[in-house]
């Protein structure tokens, strides 16, 4: 064994690993410890309460509402985002005649689709607050009012608010995945599309038989990232909605309840218990998604 080389590699890894332990592993460990205490953020000597915080979660209806909303977003946000992004990415890269190129102006459209990624999340939330306003200044309600219809309370109706939030999340995320899938499609040899087109494959067959199988690894990564984003959504809900998760907790999510309990109610121990649950939800989803979507790799 080359000990000189080992020392060289260890020397390069020591600082990054130390920083990772200090700024990632240690805060996680601290959060796990706080979850077993009654710490309120100000007392120097928190009292250990065992599993009491986790037992309280079972009777917390608001928390379980938040879990339900996160699960809805977890299912629908990746499904809608990936479906729309795949459609547009295919059009921009292989939607031309014979599957040999994208539609006219595809480079310009890539820039347009990616634009929402340039905006900060808080800016997106404030922007759509104005879009969803229930009066004549709202972009969606203005034409309805002009036509004589009643304005729709996109963010004030408990039956609609969560779907409005979902729409904003998908709108913001689609552009990035259009670019990601476009890069994946661009790496597929043009010969494959040309050969399939010569054999009589239409646009739908090109997508299902050529593009989708060869892009599966990229789709798998996108699905995991979007699932984690759906579980971690916070800023859009906190900024856009009434009562930061309202009305009547109809849009609240786990991250919002963690923040509320920690920084409004000063129940840091209870909030940390919620954080631990969210941590295992996220890890469990990532592991399950990677396991279920695993398939034989196609070489090209």
Automatic annotation (TrEMBL):
<keyword id="KW-0472">Membrane</keyword>
<feature type="transmembrane region" description="Helical">
    <location>
        <begin position="268"/>
        <end position="290"/>
    </location>
</feature>
<feature type="transmembrane region" description="Helical">
    <location>
        <begin position="160"/>
        <end position="183"/>
    </location>
</feature>
<feature type="transmembrane region" description="Helical">
    <location>
        <begin position="71"/>
        <end position="96"/>
    </location>
</feature>
<keyword id="KW-0813">Transport</keyword>
<keyword id="KW-1133">Transmembrane helix</keyword>
<dbReference type="Pfam" id="PF00528">
    <property type="entry name" value="BPD_transp_1"/>
</dbReference>
<feature type="domain" description="ABC transmembrane type-1">
    <location>
        <begin position="67"/>
        <end position="289"/>
    </location>
</feature>
<dbReference type="InterPro" id="IPR051393">
    <property type="entry name" value="ABC_transporter_permease"/>
</dbReference>
<dbReference type="InterPro" id="IPR035906">
    <property type="entry name" value="MetI-like_sf"/>
</dbReference>
<keyword id="KW-1003">Cell membrane</keyword>
<feature type="transmembrane region" description="Helical">
    <location>
        <begin position="223"/>
        <end position="241"/>
    </location>
</feature>
<dbReference type="GO" id="GO:0055085">
    <property type="term" value="P:transmembrane transport"/>
</dbReference>
<keyword id="KW-0812">Transmembrane</keyword>
<protein>
    <submittedName>
        <fullName>N-acetylglucosamine transport system permease protein</fullName>
    </submittedName>
</protein>
<comment type="similarity">
    <text>Belongs to the binding-protein-dependent transport system permease family.</text>
</comment>
<dbReference type="InterPro" id="IPR000515">
    <property type="entry name" value="MetI-like"/>
</dbReference>
<feature type="transmembrane region" description="Helical">
    <location>
        <begin position="12"/>
        <end position="36"/>
    </location>
</feature>
<feature type="transmembrane region" description="Helical">
    <location>
        <begin position="108"/>
        <end position="132"/>
    </location>
</feature>
<dbReference type="GO" id="GO:0005886">
    <property type="term" value="C:plasma membrane"/>
</dbReference>
């Amino acid at each position: 064994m080359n000990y000189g080389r080992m020392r060289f590699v260890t020397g390069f890894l020591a600082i990054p690993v130390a920083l990772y332990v200090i700024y990632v592993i240690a805060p996680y460990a601290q959060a796990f410890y706080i979850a077993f205490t009654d710490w309120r953020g100000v007392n120097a000597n928190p009292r250990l309460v065992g599993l009491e915080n986790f037992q309280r979660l079972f009777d917390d209806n608001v928390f379980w509402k938040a879990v339900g909303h996160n699960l809805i977003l977890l299912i629908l946000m990746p499904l809608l985002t990936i479906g729309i992004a795949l459609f547009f990415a295919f059009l921009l890269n292989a939607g031309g005649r014979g599957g040999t190129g994208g539609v006219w102006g595809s480079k310009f459209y890539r820039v347009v689709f990616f634009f929402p990624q340039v905006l900060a999340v808080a800016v997106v939330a404030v922007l759509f607050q104005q879009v969803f306003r229930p009066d004549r200044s709202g972009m969606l309600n203005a034409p309805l009012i002009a036509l004589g219809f009643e304005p729709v309370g996109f963010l004030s109706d408990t039956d609609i608010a969560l779907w409005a939030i979902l729409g904003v999340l998908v709108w913001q995320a689609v552009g990035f995945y259009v670019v990601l899938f476009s890069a994946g499609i661009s790496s597929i040899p043009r010969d494959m599309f040309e050969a399939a087109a010569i054999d009589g494959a239409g646009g739908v067959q090109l997508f299902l038989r050529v593009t989708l199988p060869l892009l599966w690894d990229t789709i798998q990564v996108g699905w995991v990232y979007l699932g984690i984003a759906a579980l971690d959504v916070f800023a859009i809900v906190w900024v856009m909605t009434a009562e930061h998760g309202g009305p009547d907790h109809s849009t609240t999510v786990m991250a919002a309840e963690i923040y509320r309990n920690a920084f409004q109610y000063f129940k840091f121990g209870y909030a940390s218990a919620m954080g631990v649950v969210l941590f295992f939800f996220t890890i469990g989803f990532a592991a399950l998604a990677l396991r279920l979507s695993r398939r034989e790799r196609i070489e090209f």
